Amino acid sequence: MRRPIHIWGGIAAILITTVVFIVPFLFIVVNAMKSSREAAMRSFAMPAVWRLWDNLVEVIQTRDYMVLTAFVNSTILTVASVTMLVIFGAMVGYVLQRRPSIWTGPANFLILAGLIIPPAVVPTIWLLQGLGLFKTLHGLILIEVAYGLSFSVLLFRAFIATIPRELDEAAIIDGAGPMRIFFGIILPLLRPVVVTVIVVQSVAIFNDFTNPLYYLPGNKNATVQLTLYNFLSQFNTSYNLLFTDILLITIPPLIVYIFFNRQIVAGLTAGAVKG
Amino acid sequence: MVAEITRDDAPASTRIKPVRSPSPYPSWFYLPAAIIYGVLFLFPTVASLFFSLTRWTLFDATFIGLGNFQQFLKEPFLLQGLVNTLIYAVLTSGLKVVIGLALGVMLTSQIVARGYLRAVIFFPVLVSTVGVGITFTTLMHPTAGAINTTLALVGIHGPGWLTDPHFALISVALVDVWKGVGLAMVIYMAGIVAIPQEFYEAASIDGATGWQKFGSITLPLAMPATITVIILSLIGGLRSFDLIWAMTKGGPGFTSDVIASVIYKQYQAGFYGLSTAGNVVLFVLVAVLIVPLSAFLNRRQVEL
User: Fold this and answer.
1) Among A163, B12, B110, B132, which is least packed, fewest CB within 10 Å?
2) In chain B, what are the helix, strand and coil shares in percent, each to the nearest 5?
3) pLDDT at B301
4) Containing domain of residue A120, as a range?
5) B121 and B14 share a domain?
């Protein structure tokens, strides 16, 4: 039986969250449909003419199809770095969990360091220049991997602890080598946590603004987050196109959220319960 | 890609010895991750300790001792960045703990429409920070923004949220809370759901009120969640850059500058040594706050 407080409280909560959380998104959607003169008013009024499609076409054509290039760049960046994060992170988490050695202590320390230390920006740029990777997508991919490894390893190590060692031992007796055991037996069993890592990291990397700003400057290589600045200028902002672009780059995380809601929450709440 | 890096400067410590280990858990599994992490994260971090002591043009570095750090503590606008970083981090994590806990308790109760509420409050966590920043900058415009035009309808003259020096930093912090509180909420929900129901039943039999149950059961037993929320949001708050950059660029004046935006501004201005010193200051600040805090919080938890 639900007590009245749960019903009235629920209704109040629905009203408040709708105003606080839905209205800003509504504002984006409404203004993405207006003409540039109407959107310049920055109000919630319904558009006089619905022109989402025209705005969309205009956003895509701006600066020689820069948004399309940016989507391609962001997709390559996300897929490549998340792939490496999964494979390399799982390899480290596996050995770290299975075999305590002289490396365990330093590795644990470095994982924590990776979680809390803010990256040193200018020395990294200097290094990337030295390696010929500054302003290249390859360089940014490796940067995202370096910055995301700690979190991936933590998730993998915790999950691998739940896989019985007897499985590895049976495989060893059957004569399987380390590569066979890891890629043939362990990795397939890691599927739930692999999905979590993929989903959480790809949202983070797709939404990343700071690292592309520092390590991949220039319009030619823009990632999606930087395209917003195409429509934003101090004196002449095209609000309708700006909000259409925001709408466009919100769609991928929205799709991911609809399908992988559970995995995202699982990944982000790891550590909330004393294990 | 990886091979390119190994060729020039893999740190010696990450090279494996040519001894063939019969172990099914070979140490070389560490290697790909160790090379990428060591070269692109660890090496620049260590190098920053040196470069922060220099006047640096990327081509040559002149050693000037602690000059950059002195400048950081002497120049009012740099010092303000330091103070603002602390205000921002404490404000955002405090609000995330309080609101996150309230929402967590609410959404683990029998309230109607839990699924809807959770989905709606959590979604901003996944949205682009810059997009959120730009949207709220528009909503917070002093005259044309929807927030102040709505307040004007009920006769309140809203402040210049982002243009008034007294409000700018706080306004950005509030948007940060808006975007991040969903994460605190789901962390609390996971923590609260894990509390055994028997405790509440026993307390009910003893005649405890709702507040007593909250104070003596939920709050202490959700401590791991509180620790996670505080640590995560403090680290995030101290390092926060993109939201502030999208909303105020540190303005008006330097009133909403934080260390991370100072680092970017000094980098753009070509003061690479000073920018790197900013990085070291931020690093020290994070370490000095987070390490003792997590030790303290984790000890308290054992006592319970």
Assistant:
1) B12
2) 70, 0, 25
3) 61
4) 64-269
5) no
The verdict on a CB contact (< 8 Å) between B48 and A88 is no
Provide the percentage of residues in chain A whose pLDDT is more than 70.
Answer: 96
Q: Which of residues 213-272 of A touch B (CB under 8 A)?
A: 213-214, 224-225, 228, 232, 239, 242-243, 246, 249-250, 253-254, 256-257, 261, 264-265, 268-269, 271-272
Contacts with A105 from chain B: Cβ below 8 Å: none
List Cα–Cα distances, B273 to A135, B57, B60, B71, in angstroms. Answer: 21, 8, 11, 11
Which among B32, B131, B275 has CB closest to A121? B275
pTM: 0.88
Condensed to tens digits (0 to 9), the pLDDT of residues A141-159 reads 999 999 999 999 999 998 8
**Shared domain check, B229 and B129:** yes
Tokens (6 digits) for A215: 């390590």
CA distance A20 to A15: 9
B276 and B183 inside one domain: yes
- Chain B, residues 204-223, CB within 8 A of chain A, namely none
Which of B25, B35, B136, B221 to mutate: most A Cβ within 10 Å? Answer: B25
Q: Taking CB atoms and an 8 Å cut-off, how many pairs form between chains A and B? A: 263
Could you read off the pLDDT of A237-247 as tens digits, one per residue?
788 889 999 99
| Rounded CA separation B22/B35 (Å) | 23
Domain that holds residue B42: 2-51
Whether B182 and B249 map to the same domain: the answer is yes
Spans in chain B with pLDDT lower than 50: 1-13, 21, 303-304
Q: Quote the number of domains for chain B.
A: 2
B251 CB neighbours in chain A (<8 A) are none
Instruction: Determine contact, residues B134/A242, Cβ cutoff 8 Å.
Output: yes
Write the single-letter amino acid at A135: K
A42 at B interface, C-beta within 8 A = yes
Domain CATH code at residue A107 = 1.10.3720.10
Interface ipTM above 0.85: yes
